[in-house]
Design goal:
The protein has helices at about 10-20, 25-30, 45-65, 100-120, 135-140, and strands at about 35-40, 75-80, 85-90, 125, 125-130. With about 190 residues, the protein is an alpha/beta fold. It has a domain at about 40-135: Alpha-Beta Plaits. The strands form two sheets. A three-stranded mixed sheet has the order 2-3-5. The chain has a two-stranded parallel sheet with strand order 1-4. Helix 3 (about 45-65) packs across helix 4. It is elongated and about 90 Å long. It starts with 11 loop residues before the first helix and ends in a 51-residue tail after the last helix. Mean pLDDT is about 75; it is low at about 1-5 and about 10-30.
């Protein structure tokens, strides 16, 4: 069955989606998320020069970031990975914090924004990964195991082991039936 619709009947988004789906596979694989020169198209000399520039700029930016407990500084080195179009940012051993959390994510986000801004329209990078001596932070500081559940305080009999909860049946008074005179009955609350 052949579907023929005039272009005026298809919404713009659907038209775009159909163009992508109908495109040959080799064209679909060339769709990039970022603009700029592909990493694999850079010469080794250019890639090294860009990585050194990123090292210098990110080191200067990291020096202005507040340190988290356990950190003593940053030894930043970067690497562009052509296969995955990824920027690897290694922060070094001195940047390993005592714990992970939102402060660490904020640090990484600030450095990511600077790196992506420098590479915008120059090198096509689809993302960045942060490493510490070549390892992911969760390999170094795994998530702590869940804490043991503490027993409920008070009487430990089987009936009191489950907490008692009070529920309110209604949210105030409301009137249900009129009296014989037609006035609402305000003395009989329900709910």
């Amino acid at each position: 069955m052949k579907l023929v619709l005039p272009c005026k009947m298809l919404p713009l988004g659907l038209t775009f989606l159909l163009c992508i789906l109908v495109a040959p596979p080799d064209l679909r694989s060339q769709v990039r998320h970022a603009s700029g020169t592909l990493i694999e198209d850079l010469s080794r000399k250019d890639r090294t020069r860009i990585e050194k520039m990123l090292d210098q700029v990110l080191t200067e930016a990291a020096a202005r970031l507040p340190l988290i407990e356990g950190q003593s500084g940053f030894d930043i080195s970067t690497r562009l990975v052509p296969r995955t179009r990824t920027l690897i940012i290694d922060l070094g051993s001195r940047a390993i914090p005592a714990y992970t959390g939102s402060e660490l994510e904020d640090q990484q986000h600030q450095l990511y924004l600077i790196a992506v801004d420098l590479l915008r329209d120059v090198v096509a990078v689809d993302g960045a990964e942060f490493r510490y001596l070549g390892r992911d932070i969760f390999e170094i500081l795994p998530d702590s195991p869940p804490r043991e559940r503490l027993p409920l305080q008070g009487n430990t009999t089987s009936n009191s082991a489950t907490p008692k909860v009070a529920l309110a049946g209604g949210h105030g008074l409301y009137f249900t039936t009129p009296t014989t005179t037609g006035a609402p009955n305000a003395t009989r609350p329900t709910g």
